[in-house]
Design a protein that fits this description.
mainly alpha
Length: 405
């Protein structure tokens, strides 16, 4: 009986600690969830919700694509990485048959929110402290490019790419916004300070795709929450003006990365010091490969080698870097064709519509932000990204279905 209460609470705590878990054990979130499902599952009639089935469908297509992948071993490895796309939707579907498990997971929802905010704040403190090894922000400019590169190689027990570190902090900002009005005055001040600090760290990490996705999603979140739309837009304009000013004066490396997008040279030659030129070269190869096999894709095991063939002809920088498509939607087409992409887009839109209709604006905005980030990153091709995305979207749907009922 105690396990019914303890396991959901531990699961939500472990998930909340996700930002600071060592990379090698982030999979414990999925394993712990399986444990909850096994202990909580009861043989009774399930109320099948189509959203969970839709959310699991992409993994099913990946599995089917293994039959036409030449590299079977690589395909199995990719399936293992993306298994969370199946575990979480089907797991939450099975949990819906157990009222006690349902009540415990919904009841301890705040445990996840507060734990995630605290762990993200600790992460931001750690990043800020480490940045002083590259400058002090006052007498010596911090070498952001070198700092971010070293972060991507791993620090202390962490081996998360700065993109994912930025994503964790961005999610924390939405959770802070969600609980802000429910908190006492002194707690609101603390949350505000934590939020400001985390925003600063996001800009220090200088991930263009995440910063733009965060700003757009937060604008949409504010427009949904606040009735005075003109006030929101004016506040956003003032905020953006301040960000541009501060970026130019205190985060020149971050500002340089944004100016790089407008530099026409970025679209003529692939150079190692320009992430924009690298992405442009990647996208050219991705579209070329899509044209050759747009209906069913190349299968989950063969995308990497197909892109490398193109990289070899186009650029040594791309070939040595062995990059993925750096766009989740292109990555899905390359794996399972346009049908797979349409299925994923329809599934995601229906999830967003459901969350919007339930007025769960923070959940809506978090998923929307991740959808925007997928325009520049393959977050569902890495263990930390796919676990986070699949767990959050299915948890938010599960939570709102239960509250509705």
């Amino acid at each position: 009986m105690q396990l019914n209460k303890t396991l959901p609470r531990l699961f939500l705590i472990i998930t909340g600690l996700f930002p600071i878990l060592p990379f090698k054990i982030k999979g414990i979130v999925a394993l712990f969830f399986i444990l909850i499902v096994l202990f909580s599952f009861k043989k009774r009639k399930l109320e099948i919700n189509y959203l969970f089935l839709l959310n699991a469908s992409l993994f099913v297509l990946y599995f089917i694509s293994l039959t036409y992948s030449d590299s079977f071993k690589e395909g199995i490895s990719k399936l293992e990485t993306t298994l969370s796309l199946f575990i979480f939707p089907i797991g939450f579907l099975l949990l819906s048959a157990n009222k006690k498990a349902i009540n415990n997971i919904v009841e301890y929802g705040n445990v996840f929110k507060y734990t995630f905010i605290v762990s993200s704040f600790l992460l931001s403190i750690l990043i800020f402290t480490l940045s002083f090894n590259y400058g002090d922000y006052i007498t010596q400019k911090v070498n952001i490019n070198r700092f971010v590169y070293d972060l991507s190689e791993g620090f202390l027990w962490m081996r998360d790419h700065p993109i994912y570190l930025s994503i964790y902090l961005s999610i924390s900002l939405f959770l802070i916004a969600e609980i802000f009005n429910q908190s006492k005055r002194k707690h609101q001040i603390m949350l505000l300070l934590v939020g400001i600090f985390e925003i600063i760290i996001v800009f220090i990490l200088a991930r263009k795709g995440v910063i733009i996705s965060l700003l757009l999603s937060f604008l949409i979140f504010s427009l949904m929450q606040i009735k005075n739309k003109k006030k929101v837009l004016l506040s956003f304009f003032i905020f953006m003006t301040a960000i541009i000013f501060l970026g130019q004066n205190y985060f020149p490396d971050t500002a340089k990365r944004f100016r790089e997008v407008l530099d026409t040279k970025s679209y003529h030659e692939v150079v190692s010091h320009s992430s924009t030129s690298i992405r442009y070269g990647i996208y050219k190869c991705s579209f070329e490969k899509i044209k050759e096999s747009w209906l069913f894709g190349y299968g989950i095991g063969d995308v990497g080698q197909e892109l490398r063939k193109c990289y070899k002809d186009k650029s040594e920088v791309l070939y040595i870097g062995n990059f993925n498509s750096h766009n989740q939607y292109l990555g899905i087409i390359l794996r399972v064709g346009v049908f797979g992409l349409l299925l994923f887009i329809i599934s995601t839109i229906l999830n967003l519509i459901f969350l919007y209709n339930r007025k769960d604006y923070s959940a809506f905005s978090i998923i929307l932000m991740l959808v925007f980030v997928m325009l520049t990153e393959n977050i569902m091709d890495r263990q930390n990204g796919v676990i986070l995305f699949s767990m959050l979207i299915n948890y938010f749907i599960f939570r709102n279905i239960i509250i509705k009922n």
